[in-house]
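for ur thesis appendix - glutathione transferase. copy paste whatever u need, i formatted it the way the template wanted (i think)
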Amino acid sequence: MITVHHLNDSRSQRILWLLEELGVDYEVVRYERDATTRLAPDILKQIHPLGKSPVLKDGDLKLHESGAITDYLIRTYGAGKLSPEPGSLNYESYVEWLHYAEGSAMLPLLLRLYTSRLGDAAAPLMPRIDSETENHFAFMNSEMTGREYFVGSNLTGADIMMSFPLEAARARGILKSYPALSAFVERIQARPAYLRALDKGGHYSYGPAET
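the 3d part is after this line
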């Protein structure tokens, strides 16, 4: 049985969504952030030394990086779903977006989060952070204009990986200037598997307004 160690309002929500799309049986062990610090509880360090989530266990295997978990689950349980044909041009684009989600899209969001706590001391950094935010989100919006998914004509793991940075950006008001990305988030959040994952994971601050 697959076990997901799940922290509320974290990247692990997209892993629950992925498992629901795959139709794989799994169990969820929930952890809650500290209401004041928003940090994960120390008990998560008993699961993995970093104390982060998600952590996925499948038999003797333990993984803690969202991209690696997504890749593993689709290769192991996908049976051709949620991934283009290996060796195709779409497959290479798929792999690129899998890595882009954490390697590029999240960086300006994290910089904005941390500098927001510095007050006036962050002022010298903001022009560059704003520029990089616009650079990446304009690129993503252009790529998604006229499309439903990041790769091909069907949902893939790339869309699932990209969901978290885009949901986090929407929560901070960034997507107001990027209609194609806003529409993408609305579409994925209406999927039955996505809604089932919300039931499994509990309250998710980046989810649909009614959750």
